[in-house]
């Protein structure tokens, strides 16, 4: 019997290191369930993607066995494209050639072609592993990224010979060297602009331009003996290096922009300028060409590190992909079957290490390779030296590190819960990259936004993705906050998104909420950790229009962002923030209203969602200003006014969604829009009776009909909407919105919050919709609801011809970070409910009789004997802890830091004080007596 949440395509297992892994056993070439309605310009219809990595390098693996390394310094890109027409196949695959004396050699490949029955694929925590068995031989290739921040991966290839004769073999380790740039510029150039909207995606043109862009990058290879290389000896001008200690280096160079490139980009700038000027939006500034792409790409390398074969021969390096693959292509390259002489020349597009060895009878040989790139601050020699040693031990230690510094939740007889949390943690860390333009790590939204459109935003997204790390990795939170602070423009705008090498994304979405996300994450971080030092950190905002901005503090940049929100965004006739071009739901305006009315909406529209969000956030921001000894009246008073303005939009059962101006009025007033409701509850706009009515309404209309989380609305529009019925913003399911619902419900009904949290997990999704592969180990930012024709999947386009013209979420339906980040964050926020200026509030209403929540910041455990908890902020202090009980308990005894302590009773629980922080946690214990 499969483990809970395994779905159709394989099963969850526990690997030899005690970590979750997914054994994928679907033959996607023969099984129709593996096929998605995908535009094949972007991906194969049966390509199921898995992502792993560390905080520097991200590996995008496929069920076909390939691995593409994503590298963001300079601009986001794959170092190896998958483009058979140009003889490139990503990387991470190899071929074993077995000498059969005078008979044709046997070939075993770790590229999945569906013809080998014994082909196991395991997607693990920080690694992928492929095992292929054919006749007397097996090949096990494990590719992992060492836990940490080094831009490398290690490929371990174990070859077993089960015959009674020793065999001479040669292993061909392949990594592609033709880049694929996630170029927003090419998408902009391929868009048909109509009435200021991004009207049609001409995907073929964008993809074609990206492939032509790759032609501007030329590879220059050299082969060196790694031992001599470490001693800084001269390069060997040879295509071979002795034995197992050699390295192939590739210094990729950008050959420059041509006249046509510059002319076309100039035309694009002029075409967008009227839209920029009419809406006075800094974020629509179109940067120069060098800002759009990586004009200084990093060096890459492939090194042979070790072999346990006593007679391993010289490794030959092959770089000519066209000759190597020939007519046989990836399944049976010509270079395996005949002598293909390939001298290393500039412009080649492969990095192949062909290592000969002898496998003893009934024995094995293990070969080890390291592949990586060299950004600023790293060098090839140091990385090779660092990772030369006991690779089995290195892999085991790397795996062990995944168990540390994370959010954990153990519930008896529900092992899948903590499995999922560990998986979400590794998925977020594996998606973390480094932006060299800003000099900070970043958690891009991924999904279609990064991998097809080519930008990391919207800017609200990295901020929400990093929220779980408040509990586990405050350093990463600070980086994302600094990243956002550096993006703040001279007028206080937080740009919609960043693309290329620090370029501001061109977008029609002039949003009203982005500055608030910066203030919210900043406030939550400080309230939780009590670390005010980030406010004093000095950063240099990124140059705008080529002009250097002066250094400033994070606090001053936050204040600048707040001022922009209060003055430029401002409020309308209903006292609510102006809607501008949209808020969290970009399609409230763009794509959902008559373009002729959009100028009026930009001037007159208002958002109930952002009013409620602003109130909740600015109360918290006012608190951190008070903690820092700063004047907080402006923030606090605006929060009060927004709470009052939102309260006026109560309709008797729910709060309204948005006002579209004097002509269009309120958005579909008969519909329950989920987005503003949780924030209205949390900011205090709803009184207790209204909260009860609203919670019942949400449960009845949006939660109960849906098995995998609340629907965005209770009614879907049949026709005339940008998305089909039950998909995307037309009553689809959004994990990020449901994350706020869980937060709100937890304050009034923890059992309801927990029920909603479970429904939003990947495991429950896989149980409800086992043949929806998106949702098995990752997912999109929106799932289709029961109101759609294809529930459990994501937004798609049924008509194959229309599919070629427009972008759908099935074109890259996984590794949006929302379902990972919110499930993980809510798993902590259900217990550590609220952080205050002088302590923390723990919610004791979790509806299980035994459980254990833990993280480095806070923990809560319940047994039959009572409760235990900790709170360990970054700063030492005497903190006020409030415990909120939802069920009465018999008498109990309280210990704080091992000492019996008194407490004050409140209407809902108790309050006590205790010392702790700075790695010395405040510990408390309640014992039932």
Describe the structure.
This protein is α+β, with helices and mostly antiparallel strands and 929 residues long. It folds into five domains: 1-46 and 710-825, no CATH class; 48-177 and 219-252 and 296-401, Glycoside hydrolase, family 65, N-terminal domain (Beta-galactosidase, Chain A, domain 5); 179-206 and 257-294 and 436-548, no CATH class; 570-686, no CATH class; 832-928, Immunoglobulin-like, CATH 2.60.40. Helix 20 (676-683) runs parallel beside helix 22 (735-746).
Please count the beta strands (DSSP E, at least 2 residues each).
Answer: 47
What CATH architecture label of the largest domain applies?
A: Distorted Sandwich
**Alpha-carbon distance between the termini?**
43 Å
Main sheet properties: 10 strands, antiparallel
Biggest sheet, strands in spatial order? 1-2-11-12-13-14-27-24-22-20
Fraction of helical residues = 25-40%
Structural class of the secondary structure composition? alpha+beta
DSSP strand (E) fraction?
15-25%
Mean pLDDT: 92
Number of domains: 5
| Shape verdict | globular
Number of DSSP helical runs: 26
**CATH topology category name of the largest domain:** Beta-galactosidase, Chain A, domain 5
